[in-house]
Hints:
Layout: E1 3-8, E2 11-16, H1 27-42, E3 48-53, H2 68-71, H3 73-82, E4 109-113, E5 116-118, H4 120-127, E6 130-134, E7 138-140, H5 154-162, H6 164-173, E8 176-178, H7 179-185, E9 190-192, H8 197-210, H9 213-225, H10 231-258
Parallel strand pairs: 2-3, 3-4, 4-6, 5-7, 6-9
Antiparallel strand pairs: 1-2, 7-8
Amino acid sequence: MTIRIERDGKVATVIHSRIEARNAMDPDSAEALTAAFSELDADPETGAIVFWGEGGAFCAGWDLKYAQAFTDAERFRTEIVEGLAFPHGGGPAPRGPMGPSRLEMGKPVIAAIEGPAVAGGMELALWCDVRIMAQDAYFGVYCRRWGIPLIDGGTVRLPRLVGQGRALEIIMTGRKVAADEALRIGLCETVVPRGEARAAAEAMAQQIVRFPQGAMLADRRNAIAGHGLGVREALAREWAGAVETIVKEGAAGAGRFSGGKGRGGDFEDI
């Protein structure tokens, strides 16, 4: 079983375990990974999700042992061009080549990155809400060497995180982006000592699930949905998405504050 889920209260950790291949993706793992994230997104007992590669590698990209699909014209047409194409007229997209890269998750997903997150593995990390990297972890569009383009959202998400010019330089050169640079340019949010990425991601997830969930999820949705909108439209979307939550959760929270909780910016006693 290359994909498994481990739980601690409302936090679930999705583990990709193809250690012998540095967690490079194969078709079965891509299917199982998509199913795992879909299951957790629909699970009312799950509040936040951590994504971790076991054995010291997040994901080394697509397993090139399966690349014969790219050289067999008929197989490429049926499995890739047709099998993974976006449907005409809208509707849910099929999984991405790397698995869950096209899922629009309703819950926070935190990537815990040890070792390489390269090529399609980098794209999976970009799909997550937050990236926590070990000091020796790294990104890179390593598929540049083989003439394989980014097809799991890399050209969409990387410019949104680091800006177009820097994204193009990283994409076109295929160079290694170490954790310290990733932190500096906004490609990750936290760098931790080697071997501690999973624990740090799970600690962040536990912090997130402590809060009233309606308001947190509304803010997450609005931050994501507002990207690229005009200011007025984004403000209107924010307002519409927040009013109901204020009624449901905000009044109760204000009451707790009036009763002495959370004074002075205290996040512990809430």
